Automatic annotation (TrEMBL):
Name of the top EC class for this enzyme: transferase
Gene assigned in the entry: lacC
Keywords carried by this UniProt record: ATP-binding, Kinase, Lactose metabolism, Nucleotide-binding, Transferase
Name of the protein: Tagatose-6-phosphate kinase
Annotated pathway: Carbohydrate metabolism; D-tagatose 6-phosphate degradation; D-glyceraldehyde 3-phosphate and glycerone phosphate from D-tagatose 6-phosphate: step 1/2
SUPFAM superfamilies: Ribokinase-like (SSF53613)
Listed CDD domains: FruK_PfkB_like
Glycosyltransferase among keywords: no
InterPro entries reported for this sequence: 1-PFruKinase (IPR022463), Carboh/pur_kinase_PfkB_CS (IPR002173), PfkB_dom (IPR011611), Ribokinase-like (IPR029056), Tagatose/fructose_Pkinase (IPR017583)
């Protein structure tokens, strides 16, 4: 079974307008409301690909009903810990004339030690050898930057496969616990490593992470493509030219495809093709809607994967 863990979920409101003019009244062309948070987005894409997952994590008690109703309507199983406060609403502003994307993310609710212990108890009860756990996203108030490290250590004792997608100190500390797979984007990687902009330097950082005990590293680079690095091979995926409607959720789609591919015992190259195609399919969707399997399959026919030196 695949489990996604979202510590800081959100309602994602995407607002479309021709141009954002600061200091003036702006009128939107349209708006879309989705449920999100990185792990929740991963569960949505897993479902779209034809897989199943259970969404774990926290949810604000004050507006939990609407959020859970959305999960249930999508057929996503969930067992969330209810915490005091309200689940945040993140604003995504899309300026259609200039293709400018602006995110305004709220901080969200605050977590108590008792809340965290309830979540840890759920993880211990669910985790079995070979289960896949996706740990991803920002941290709410009240949670220390070593939380992913602690979660990874607990899950490794159970024999689970762990995918980490985080940034900053949370990523740095999480890497110390040696998750099986990490998927930083180029900006997240630059927060904790120094390297040049050329591809060989980027690959060198990925190989360094492998030496530290991580089994697979996927580095997404936006319109420059992506790298998939394992112990003895490096694959590079060229970017595909598509009409970008929203950049939100592309990385989550990649993580979802990786977890889905592992659950189906796919080979590494095929997992990478699926991941890149899922990320590309995500950016041609509006808001944080999961990409359709039909679009993913069509893009898989076109994706170019090559072995790096």
């Amino acid at each position: 079974m695949i489990y996604t863990v979202t510590l800081n979920p959100a309602f994602d409101k995407t607002i479309y307008l021709d141009e954002l003019i600061k200091g003036h009244v702006n009128r939107s062309v349209k708006s879309i409301m989705d449920i999100g948070g990185k792990g929740i987005n991963v569960s949505k894409v897993i479902k779209s690909l034809g897989g199943e997952s259970i969404a774990l994590g926290f949810i604000g008690d004050e507006n939990k009903d609407k959020f859970i109703k959305c999960l249930n309507s999508m057929g996503i199983k969930n067992d969330l810990v209810f915490v005091a406060g309200e689940t945040r609403t993140n604003i995504k502003i899309v300026e259609t004339k200039a293709n400018i994307y602006t995110d305004i993310n709220q901080r969200g609710f605050s977590i108590t030690p008792e809340d965290l212990e309830e979540l840890l108890s759920k993880l211990r009860s669910y985790a079995r050898e070979g289960d896949i756990f996706v740990l991803s996203g920002s941290l709410p108030a009240g949670v220390d930057n070593d939380v992913y490290m602690n979660l990874i250590n607990i899950l490794k004792e159970k024999g689970a496969i762990i995918i980490l997608d985080a940034d900053g100190e949370a990523l740095k500390n999480g890497l110390a616990a040696k998750p099986d797979i990490v998927k930083p984007n180029i900006n997240e990687l630059r927060m904790i490593y120094e390297f040049d902009d050329d591809f060989n330097s980027i690959v060198s950082v990925g190989r360094e992470i492998i030496k530290q005990g991580v089994k697979k590293v996927i580095i997404s680079m936006g319109n420059k493509g992506a790298f998939y690095i394992i112990e003895d091979e490096v694959f590079y995926a060229k970017p595909q030219r598509v009409e970008v409607k929203s950049t939100v959720g592309a990385g989550d789609s990649m993580v979802a495809a990786i977890s889905f591919g592992i659950s189906k015992y796919m080979e590494d190259k095929e997992i990478f093709k699926l991941a890149v195609s899922s990320a590309t399919a995500a950016i041609i969707e509006e808001g944080t809607k999961a990409p359709s399997r039909e679009n993913v399959d069509e893009l898989m026919k076109k994706v170019s994967i090559e072995r790096w030196m």
